[in-house]
Amino acid sequence: MTQFKRHIVLLLTIVLVGSLFLPLEIPYTFESVAKVYPLREWVLQKTPEGTLSSSIQDYKSGQLHEFASFQFERGDVVHIRFNPENQGRMQLDSGEMVAGISSYALEDRIVRLENNLAVARATLSRDQAGSKPEIVSAASEEVKVIEEELELNKKLYVRAQRMFGEGLIPKVELERMQGAYETSLARLELSRSKIEVENTGEKPEQLQLLKAQIRAFEKEINYLKSRKGDFKIYAPHSGKLSFHSDENGEYMKLEDTSEYILYFPIKIKNKYFVNKNAKIELELPGRDSLVQVRLLGVGDDIEILQREKIVMAKASIGKNQDGLIPGMPLACKITCDKVSPLEYIKRATKLEIK
Fold it and tell me: Tens digits of per-residue pLDDT, 153-187?
């Protein structure tokens, strides 16, 4: 190296080292790669076994907003059918029917209960109205016969009492006459109660039991029909519709793109430099300039990415951005507060310069 070149290198070194201590401030910046997500994503999945699950992931809050699994009885024959009207559509509105489920066991149980309810109502109506006249007439004739029998047994019992008192018959004969009289008395009471039932219907407690059974049937039928209504699935929000199929079964996704959420990793050494004033900029497809987005926050959970400790940060961007597709990666630039040249080098190189 010539003496002139050595002087130039020495001069540049002096200038560079001297600039580290100048009262200048420059923004501290670093880069990352963001992944695009919708605001919310609803997934409706049907497995090869025929089970169905529904989940809503809220990417803005980072939480699973809702999860539901449709359970059916073992051995039940279940049919799950996506609404054919949605095939080929790119957009779905909130509240539109997405899929319907039919359960053989549920339908069969409703039919059986409705049949039982019809029988119970018919029985109640008959018992409240009373029996036919010919049945009442026959019961009345039976009462008359038993009354005559009772009158005869009463006379025989009275005579037996007198003869027993005179010592003409043994006690066993008296007891036999007493038993015949008491039996006739009981039969008469039973026959009279039968006439009352035939004329007025069942006894109040029996009618109340029938009414309770009817209410129980109605309650269970209404519950099962409400479950049948639950087996119609409606879109929880508007969004972009897509159908997919893999080894885990068929599933449908509904992505709410009224806002896009960006997740990007930040090295743990840079986490404490990113505050609410940080400027996040993206390189969007087809754009010559960077697009600024809004920082939502920086997480605290430490992960390992390519042997580096990182935390995840979130940002938001409005829907009016052409070319954004959920799942696509985007280069992003993070600009933090201004620092001195010396501090910049310390942050960038992790050197402890004193």
Answer: 888 888 888 888 887 877 767 777 887 788 778 77
CA distance 228 to 122: 27
Token representation of residue 121? 């109502």
Q: Tell me the CA distances in angstroms from 44 to 38, 94, 212, 238, 247, one per residue in order.
A: 16, 15, 41, 14, 15
pTM comes to 0.59
Assign residue 123 a region (left: φ > 0; alpha: ψ between -120 and 50; beta: otherwise). alpha
Q: What domains does the chain contain, in order, with CATH numbers?
A: 23-92+237-349 (2.40.30.170)
Is residue 310 within 8 A of residue 268, CB to CB? The reply is yes
pLDDT at 323 over 80: no
- Give, in degrees to the nearest 5, the angle at Cα 133 between 132 and 139: 100
> CB count, 10 Å around CB of 233?
20
Which candidate, 312, 328, 334, places its Cα nearest to that of 62? 312
Exposure on the CB side of residue 337, measured as CA atoms within 13 A: 11
- pLDDT reported for residue 7: 45
Angle ∠(111,112,117) on CA atoms, nearest 5: 95
User: CA 45 → CA 6, 23, 82, 92, 123, distances in Å?
Assistant: 71, 61, 11, 17, 47
Of the candidates 227, 237, 228, which has an alpha carbon nearest to the alpha carbon of residue 65?
237
Tell me the residue length of the chain.
354
- Which of 67, 27, 19, 61 shows the shortest CA–CA distance to 43? 67
Q: What pLDDT sits at residue 6?
A: 57
Tell me what pLDDT residue 309 has.
93
